[in-house]
Amino acid sequence: LSLIWLCLFRFADYGCMLEIRDVKFFPDGRSVVDTVGVRRFRVLSHGQRDGYNTANIEYLEDKKAEGAEYEDLVRIHDSVYDQAVSWFTCLKDNMKAQILNHFGPMPGKEREPQSNPSGPAWYWWLLAVLPLENRAQLAILAMTSLKDRLIAIRRVLIFVTRKRPR
Description:
Elements: H1 2-9, E1 14-25, E2 31-49, E3 52-59, H2 67-89, H3 93-103, H4 121-129, H5 134-142, H6 146-163
Antiparallel strand pairs: 1-2, 2-3
């Protein structure tokens, strides 16, 4: 969710359309909105209308890899997925519980990494739970190469794994 909420407070160059799955209202007027990102976009222009922020956007889709490039993509995809599972498995129980309560379990690995125009669901789950600044998340959100995003996340996983106290 941190990827998406950034766009509500200031205009960013990129964002994600949300599907609202559930809303919980509290007696004090607060509410919790459970959402899932469904489609990335780039902001072409923005303004205001009737007091609401508005924007003209174009949707983003990943460039498809083929042939030897596709085989390389699958190898990197599988490797980074395994690295992500290993990282999550090694977290302390209280940290795992917090992540699972807030984001739910990590989606499984898709057989075909390019089946979704924005890439695999497990990747976006991981991006949301990793300790990254909003700027870094937004830069990754904007990438239209799954391979480049996987390489970026691999670097983050290497960093947080080395940083972890033993």
